[in-house]
Amino acid sequence: MIVVSDSTPLIIFAKVNHFSLLRLLFEEIIIPQSVYNEVAVIGSGKAGACEVARSDWVRVERVQDQRAVNWLRREHGRLSRADAEAIILSQERQADFLLVDDRDLRKIAQTMLTKTAILYTGSVLIYAKREGFIDKVRDLLDEMREEGIWMDDEVYEQILAQAGES
């Protein structure tokens, strides 16, 4: 299974001390160099930095097609290099999953990556519950909110409904 991740899911799971849940679910996660830089270098001292830098199961890869990254950023002006590289790396690696939270970024990824499942933090939690790694999605969602991770009430309720906890 090939899993590529953008920055935000890594940071969120680190913030609530459940970074290792990603390893249990996916065994290995691939991130582009710019995601590594965003989380571990620029974000040094913040949630996710040490976890990403020290994890032997988070593998950093360079995106080969930088022209595609630049094109994607021109087409979608608000995309960061890390966002664009996560999508293009998923395409290059023919990833099974791309982990990404930003709603607009997910829409862009879905149009470009028709054979890749796009997961966000909520869907990862639902998957973790179904696989028996967590008992309640609500507990982790509440921890995320307590840590200042923004989630509107509608999304919160949708995730709980999908997890069978509404």
Radius of gyration: 15 Å
Number of extended strands: 5
Number of domains: 1
Residue share in β-strands:
5-15%
Tertiary shape: globular
The CATH homologous superfamily is called 5'-nuclease
What is CATH's topology name?
Rossmann fold
Structural category is: mainly alpha
Distance between the termini: 31 Å
* Major sheet: arrangement of strands: 1-4-5
Order of secondary-structure elements: EHHEHHEHHEHEHHH
CATH architecture: 3-Layer(aba) Sandwich
Main sheet, how many strands, which sense, barrel? 3 strands, parallel
CATH class: Alpha Beta
**Unreliable spans:** none
Write down the overall mean pLDDT: 94
Total helical segments: 10
Percent helix, as a range, is 55-70%
Structural topology:
Layout: E1 3-5, H1 7-15, H2 19-26, E2 29-32, H3 33-42, H4 49-54, E3 58-61, H5 66-75, H6 81-93, E4 97-99, H7 103-112, E5 117-119, H8 121-130, H9 137-146, H10 153-162
Parallel strand pairs: 1-4, 2-3, 4-5
Helix pairs in contact: 1-2, 3-6, 5-6
Describe this structure in words.
By secondary structure, the protein is mainly alpha-helical. It has one domain: 5'-nuclease (Rossmann fold). The chain contains ten helices and five strands. Strands 1-4-5 form a three-stranded parallel β-sheet. The protein has a two-stranded parallel ribbon with strand order 2-3. Helix 3 packs across helix 6. The model has no long low-confidence stretch (mean pLDDT 94).
